[in-house]
Amino acid sequence: MKMNFPSFFLVPLLAALSPALATAESTAGTSAKTLTKSGCPATLDYSFRKLSDAKSINLCDTYKGQVTLIVNTASRCGFTPQFAELETLYNTYKPRGFTVLGFPSNDFGSQDPGTEKEIATFCSRTYGVKFPMFEKTHAIKSAASPFYRTLGELAGEYPQWNFHKYLLDREGRLVASLPSHVSPTDKQVTDLVEKSL
User: Fold this and answer.
1) Residue 11 CB burial class (10 angstroms; 0-12, 13-18, ≥19)
2) Which of 31, 47, 138, 159 is most enclosed, with most CB atoms within 10 A?
3) pLDDT per residue as tens digits for the range 120-161
4) How do residues 163-181 score in pLDDT, each as one tens digit?
5) Phi-psi group of 190: left, alpha or beta (phi > 0 → left; psi -120 to 50 → alpha; rest → beta)
6) Looking at per-residue confidence, does 195 or 39 come out higher?
């Protein structure tokens, strides 16, 4: 039976569905191209220096096969205490193949203006951070590094503030994009990590 809906009903309905459909299409298109020519997931095919270190490591070589939480961090933010929660999450799930990767960024509110050495010292002494931290990186959409551009495009959203979280599964596929206010030890996060392990 053919159903005819008045236009005043269909227009708002289509407007509401359009963003969801666009996001689904975008994700489907990018997930089909998850591997680069090097055989790495597109999300991990980057090299960075460890924080305050001259040595550069390739994320794919080091973290492929692990469930990975990527976070843009800052030392002088209202969310800075999340360092302790990130460390707790890291220690809890590390034995099962999980890691946290921290990327200091001064993009939001200029809340990480220090040198890499100062940031490393602060993280270690104040919060006992042992999870991997890397060189300062731009995460904001207008200046995003290629790494954060890849994550932002796959997620359909870029970080809006410090401590935005992207969760990748063992294949390097994006599982979730979580805003700053979501605690790393929130049940929403731990459930997603558990399902991905």
Assistant:
1) exposed
2) 159
3) 999 999 999 999 999 999 999 999 999 999 999 999 999 999
4) 999 999 999 999 999 999 9
5) alpha
6) 195
Enumerate the active-site residues: 77
| Report field, pTM of the whole predicted structure over 0.85 | no
Spatial CA neighbour of 180 closest among 163, 159, 166: 163
Place of tokens 């269909």: 10
Which amino acid, 79?
A: F
Three-state DSSP string of the chain: CCCCCCHHHHHHHHHHHHHHHHHHHHHHHHHCCCECCCCCECCCCCEEEECCCCCEEEHHHHHCCCEEEEEEECCCCCCCCHHHHHHHHHHHHHHHCEEEEEEECCCCCCCCCCCHHHHHHHHHHHHCCCCCEECCCCCCHHHCCHHHHHHHHHHCCCCCCCCCEEEECCCCCEEEEECCCCCCCCHHHHHHHHHHC
Over residues 75-128, the pLDDT tens digits come to: 999 999 999 999 999 999 999 999 999 999 999 999 999 999 999 999 999 999
Check: CB of residue 122 under 8 Å from CB of residue 79.
no
Q: Report the alpha-carbon angle 65-69-71, nearest 5.
A: 140
